[in-house]
Design brief:
This protein has 255 residues and is of the alpha/beta class. It has helices spanning 6-26, 30-35, 44-51, 53-60, 77-86, 98-112, 161-171, 202-211; strands at residues 67-70, 91-96, 120-124, 136-142, 172-183, 215-220, 245-251. It is globular and about 50 Å long.
Length: 255
């Protein structure tokens, strides 16, 4: 009987595993390949079940060569997936304000260390001047749209719709898309619960965004949770990471 050393056997098993992954990836769509990348950032895969990235990315029709802004992108979960999809001719701008960096800086720096996401550009900027690039294909705001209506004592960390919307409208090319995911509030509450519960009324959101010049083109129920208690703030352990979420795709008119 031939005896293999531990290291030889381990290398053989790893080679077979990686070969199998490569063969599997070759049969997948570009979006599926992004989700199944073997070197995705630690911990991201455990979030996939609740975030449902395949559904979200397909809903938004993310493609190679796109220019994307991950606005208020936090630690960059979605930026990493965008990075794999857009390829070398695309770009992903991972933007955070001073406030968001307070909660995500460590994860962000680990994720981007040693240029591991070569198509991602880090963009630290505050609401007053977000320094957004122009002529981009997509702006993604994941669970943070309500933050433009959150009242904070430090006014440097707040914004207004009059300050916010012109910047994102100007950044998008004609026909560009705005993808919004956010925590649902009770219908009829508008943005009144943004500060207290970090939720926002879906129907009010549609009117608000369309009044800024965008057009809603489709919605998705993939992140809906009818069992969510809309009277609880999103950090309450009863609903934490299980809130009812709406998904909208808007378009900047071509003319």
């Amino acid at each position: 009987m031939i005896k293999l050393s531990y290291h030889v056997l381990r290398t053989a098993i790893l080679t077979l595993f990686l070969t199998g992954c490569s063969e599997d990836l070759s049969k997948m769509s570009t979006i599926e390949q992004a989700i199944h990348q073997p070197d995705r950032f630690s911990g991201d895969r455990s979030s996939d079940k609740r975030r449902k990235p395949l559904d979200i990315l397909e809903f938004a029709d993310i493609k190679a060569d796109m220019q994307i802004i991950d606005l208020l992108g936090g630690g960059g979960y979605y930026s990493e997936l965008f990075n794999y999809i857009v390829g070398d001719k695309g770009k992903v701008y991972l933007q955070n304000t001073t406030l968001f960096l307070r909660f995500s800086k460590d994860e962000l720096e680990k994720r981007l260390k040693n240029n591991r996401l070569k198509n991602v550009i880090r963009l630290d900027s505050d609401f007053a001047d977000m320094k957004l690039p122009k002529n981009v294909d997509l702006i993604f705001i994941g669970l943070s749209f309500h933050d433009i209506y959150v009242n904070r004592e430090d006014k440097r960390l707040t914004t207004t719709r009059e300050e916010f919307f012109p910047q994102i409208f100007s950044a998008l090319k004609p026909g560009g898309k705005l993808l919004i995911i956010d925590h649902a509030a009770e219908t009829g509450t508008g943005n009144s619960l943004s500060t207290k519960l970090h939720r926002i009324d879906e129907q009010w959101t549609i009117k608000d965004i369309e009044s800024a010049g965008f057009k809603l083109i489709k919605t998705s129920d993939v992140l809906r949770n009818p069992d969510d208690d809309l009277n609880l703030d999103i950090w309450n352990k009863k609903v934490f990471r299980k809130t009812d979420r709406f998904v909208h795709l808007y378009e900047k008119p071509i003319t």
